[in-house]
Task: structure prediction
Amino acid sequence: MDQDRSVTPDDLAAARAAFGAQRADVVAKNAASSAGIRAAARVPEGVASNTLQFDIELTQGERTDQQRSGRCWMFASLNTMRQRVIGAHKLKTFELSQAYPLFFDKLEKSNWFLENILDTLDEPLDGRLMAHLLADPVGDGGQWDMFKSLVRKYGVAPKESMPETACSRDTREMDAYLTRYLRGAAKRLRETAASGADAGDLTAMKKTMMAEVYRLLVICLGEPPARFDVRLRDKDDKLVLSGSFTPRSFFDEVVGMAIDDFVSLISAPTADKPFGRSFTVSRLGNVWEDHGVRHLNLPVARLKELAVAQMRDGLPVWFGCDVGQSYLSSEGIMDTASLDVDGLMGFAVEAALDRAERLDYGESLMTHAMVFEGVRLDDAGSPVLWKVENSWGKDHGRDGFDTLSDRWFDEYVYQVVVDRKYLTDEERAAYEAEPIVLEPWDPMGSLAR
Result:
């Protein structure tokens, strides 16, 4: 036996003796094995600092619920938009349809996937790129620029005009069958191309496939409305808006958001991503003619400044983060000081990697999108605690809200979306500059779910 490369009986005996000699280890074992790691590592003093008291605070309607779907990025985007309707018309609450963009996102992602298949006919099927393309072609997740593309092309609709269905509330079955169909379509396209078919034949095949995708989506989600009637009443039950709209005209006339002015900012302090440069991610997107996503990389402190500036003007802020880290989900608290896993274990677990190292080594990436709706500031005007609107219903956290400490922001917030007017001239120029192209599997290409 290679004593240096194997776990030996002597190694086990030494570890057993060392563990039994420490009273703290025994207490930690009893606590974690009975209640779970996070419950045992919970720090009450850290929890106590997460009170719902804010210096800047925006209010809007009732909490939304993405249920058993990965549509957080859609819910967050629509929640930034509905706030404008609620404020302009003094509504008690209002909700935009989340099933409507879901339909067109699945449709556009299917087309994006098939176009990528046609663009990679010479790639080996067992190569990394094909494995990436085939892994999750129409998953629920997305990024801000992908939602912007959907709104620019298809507009938005009130929830009543395209309500939820069983397949939008729980997307697993729809996603599974659509994915299976598309993988079969990829096989047929590759085999047809290998048999000598020309580009025209392949395009015609793809058009037929897209018609079948449309049929599948209508069966699952219903037909998207081409036009709808709207009657909105304010808090005093006074009729404040009445008319017939298309989804595009409703967005332009009622939501009234200059969506192209809102840009994605990331903060990735890794060696391959210099600050002050724009980036895109190869083969990431949904609407083919919009050519994917674009980010400007800035220090995390600058993301905070811009988010606060936009909220001071009464507008919420879309953001993306790694929500599973240092998170007391049942209490709605994201705070590195509220959990002491390293203290429970007696060695560095969470502190084993810093922010850049977590990105480089696959430990962290953006997994969830939410909305900043408030912030508490210290005497110097610096953020201390952030108020977060989640999309997990009113029974989550504290009436549907979470709090996010500024320490947690430093570690796990990777993206914010703000109006470009808050950027400096230099930052705007950097955003517009020719972007550096990242690999499809780069962590900045992760999709919020």
